[in-house]
Amino acid sequence: MPMSAFADWAENLREAVGELARYRQESCTGAPPVVRQIPMAGIIESLGLRKHLQEGGLTDGTLHRFLRDYLDLTVRLHHPGSMAHQVAAPHPAAALAMLVEGATNNPMAIYEMGPAAAAIEAFLLDWLRAKAGWPGGAGGVFTHGGSLANLTAIVAARSRFDKGLWAQGCRGDLALIASADCHYSIARTAGILGIGEEGVFAVPTDGSGRMQPEKIDETIQRALSAGRRPFALVANACSTATGIYDPLPEIAAVCRRHGLWLHVDGAHGAAALLSPRHRRRLEGIEQADSLVWDAHKLLCTPGLCTALLVRDAAALDHAFHEDASYLFHEKAQPGFDFIHRTVECTKASLGFRLFVVLAALGESGIAAYIDGRLELTRQAYLLLSRVPGWECPVEPQSNILCFRMPGTDEDQLQIRDRLLADGDFHLSTAVLGGRRYLRMVLTSEATTLEDLHRLVSRIQQMTKHL
User: Is the pTM for the entire model greater than 0.85?
Assistant: First the structure.
């Protein structure tokens, strides 16, 4: 690349960073819509995608204009009205980390292809392992999302249960025990591994979505009566719909009695381990065999960035079998190859993303952020549950809160659609006990109690016209 091209690249970076800074600041004010859902064809046309693809030259001022138009069509996660989904409002340091990733492109699953990134990942996994209270023999890997991490954990559990399955294939008699409110990726995992959706046996939950440990034995018996061999149990920390944590000590005791691998899907709620005030939510996690922990939910890190931790590193090291002469051979090895622990062959420097955020905030800073979002959710619960006719079915344990105004399920969906069309607030919905609830996830630091009061007033105005 000629020096002039490097100069153009540096100038483009300066302009892009300036545009992103404007975008973030503007989003935090709440002035623009939190989301603009216009038809896809309109986006393709307004961004001039065909023209840019055919003619090239998306540089200099053209790139600047394109970036501004693109950003105006994105979901603004830093917006005070962004309350819909379990996605981080990323820390600015994380954006710089991803810029470094893109510029260096070190696929670090093989140590010689990214030693610095591999060293950071190993260090950070050990740090997370200690936060979970696991011994030194624990291990893990960063992977692209909780679904892939759940799959990897269940592969490790299956390999430990029956070492011959990798070569011989699944006989169709395995059973996976899971909370009735488990994430849909668990059913996907069962389908991918040949266990099948019918091989997932659901443990009943109470009215809040919490697993009932006293129902596990009978669930296991159902699996045995169906000619299945239970090998693992999946618990939530916390559930996706309501943010409620399963009682891990009681669940762990049952798993030990039956010799089941205990996998904890802590994709959202494991972040509480970093808060001295809230880590009690995961009491008993030290007895689990594996834990999934998303950084792209409550740790201010862009997606995807998920840590899979296992209490026995050997179980993960033996989960996959591979053969590639250009990668696997005798060689000087001053580091560690993570490729043996993951489905992926080419893997981004995911640990680097999270480390830069944590290093910017420090342990006390990330704990303060988590505590702040959970405290605001508690205040939201107190506010909404006092509105005449409104219902909050579950007292929140995380930054997720479900609520329902008077009316039908269709009314709840209509209110969400109207809020979305207005652009000031972005909510999601969930079904609990057969009824549809509005659902908020408070992640943006720009969201305050005043914004929640405005949300209540806006919904009350809208309900007059249903």
Answer: yes
